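The protein record reproduced below.
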Amino acid sequence: MTIHQTTGRFAILVGAAEHESKLRTLEEAAELVPDGATIGIGGLSMNAAPMAFVRTLARRRVKDLTVVAVVAGMPIEWLVAAGCVRRVVSGLVSLEGFGLAPRFRAAVQAGQVEIEEYSEHTLICRLQAAAHRLPFVPTKAGLGTDMIGLHPETTRLESDPATGEAYVACTPLPIDIGIVHATAADRRGNVRVEPKLVWMDAEVARASATTIVTVERIVPESTFVAEPARTTYPRFMVDVVAEAPWGAYPTSCFPSYGYDGDFFRSYVAAHTDPAEAQRYWTERIDGPDTHGAFLNANGGARTLLSIARRTA
């Protein structure tokens, strides 16, 4: 084979990859997660969590997942309720002002789910170490606490040989599959978060061997070409894109919509009684066949209009 032939073949292969669509359905995206995987979930507490994907994954009943989430609540609740989780690695799991995460709390107390807890910053440092292929990332967070003793395999107390200054060395936390939610994407995997990325989602995406992004809408590639500076995740960071309008519900997706406080209140209230909690899970979360049916089971257009934010 001549150099010209080799170059031409390479160009054809690259050209095909460049134009291959990364669009998949929620169901196809969820099929990529095998039993025993370590998954990272984006969002921050009640904001911008990839809930449509999480619900689809929960309905698949995958098993023995390790779930990494810097600060989360409802995503872990649903995966625990579906029996998908073996271990949670997190800085905080709660429903914020609405209370504790009842399914997660009960599963941990019963010994059904393991919890590996860090401060938010030490967990972010572990993700950064994985993303940059470093042996560790240093931080002052955790100094003087019991955290280092709880996790001697992943956090170490060290000192700078030049200054003697102490720091915590946070070792890599690689993720098999990371899932984040965003505003828009094109078919080739360029992704935009509007108005800007404010959560820890970039660390999740960069630390993941495979990155899945759910988005509110699919837009033409020309919109990214016209304003490349507004691209949050370029296509080489993204493996799969799944369109999911209102895909963060019942959490928020600013500036488009806020979280549904009524959902959180009713969810917590239902879990004061085991029978009512199971009915709630079946009728309003796990039972609906599609994302659209799930939205309809929780008030449909009336609910969505009530949380939609009016923007100029």
